Amino acid sequence: MNTQFKKGILDLCVLSILADDDCYGYEIVSKIVSYIEISDGSIYPLLRRFKNEEYVTSYLQESIEGPPRKYYTLTQKGKETYEKLHHEWFQFQSSINQLIQNKEVI
Amino acid sequence: MNQQQYLEKLSIALTDIPPSDSLEILDEIKLHFNAARENHRTDESVSKALGSPEALAESILLEYELSHSKSEDTVFSKVKLYGRIITMGFKNIFLLPIFVSIGALVFSMYVTIYAFYFAGIMLIIAPVLNFIAPTLVNQGPLPIFALPIIGLIILYGIKKLHQYMSPLSHKLMQSLGKYIAMDYKKIVRKN
């Protein structure tokens, strides 16, 4: 998948994953990687940025399997940003689809 | 590489950010490795999937710089800021001479201000200097003790000018930056 698309869309993907449910870092990485090819490492700087921009907060939760896990959850600002990006993506997607559907693929 | 090696390399690559921040990141990556191991993945495959520790550190450093440059107000950060504005100005050839001239003007004003600071200080220590090395001091028709007083007046005046200049020049550079940014959609950030 084109690198430029990936960078822009990653925010939307992570926000969308967190919109469903609070997740810990590894969980987010696993879910995203099943859909698009990215380096696992790119998620953590993104999560830091989300924290700085107050889209998410984190909390620790005890886990039966080992050390406590760091869960991420959307803030109100994060939810609003998600909705905005979600809307923008659909508009963008439908415009592009319209454009390419009108042409014949050689 | 295994978890230990990865974390060591990452830690080294993160020396430029405060320890509290780098510890936070290292902890998080440690948790990542742990969770991966619970899912029966090898450290080797996890390291590969994460990408090189240097690359990861690079994006963390970039993120750190972006989030902290807003509050920084040191001389060096201003120099970096001016440098970036002038560099971005290079992209737009029509405006290049204007930006360089303005940059040079602001720079020379600062040089002048610091020269006056120096002169003021020298005047203040003139009596002592006169005692140690009389040939260096030329008091002219003035009594030696007038020199420090003049020095103090100069320092006071130049400090006022500096205080006045600083927000002005900052605003000037900011509006220049925004002007460039209108073309390039990013205000003084790395692309």
Protein model, in words:
The complex is a heterodimer of chains A (106) and B (191). By secondary structure, chain A is α+β, with helices and mostly antiparallel strands. Helices cover 59% and strands 13% of the residues of chain A. Chain A has a three-stranded antiparallel β-sheet. In chain A, a hairpin with a 7-residue loop joins β2 and β3. Helices cover 77% and strands 0% of the residues of chain B. Mean pLDDT of chain B is 80; it is low at 186-191. In chain B, 17% of the residues are buried. In chain B, α1 runs antiparallel to α2, α5 packs antiparallel against α6 and α6 (96-132) runs antiparallel to α7. Chain A binds chain B through residues 24-27, 29-30, 33, 39-42, 44-45, 48-49, 52, 65-67, 69-70, and chain B through 25, 28-29, 31-32, 34-36, 38-39, 46, 49-51, 55-56, 59-60, 62-63, 66-67.
Output the keywords.
heterodimer, A: 106 residues, alpha+beta, three-stranded antiparallel beta sheet, 4 helices, 13% strand, elongated, B: 191 residues, mainly alpha, 77% helix, disordered C terminus
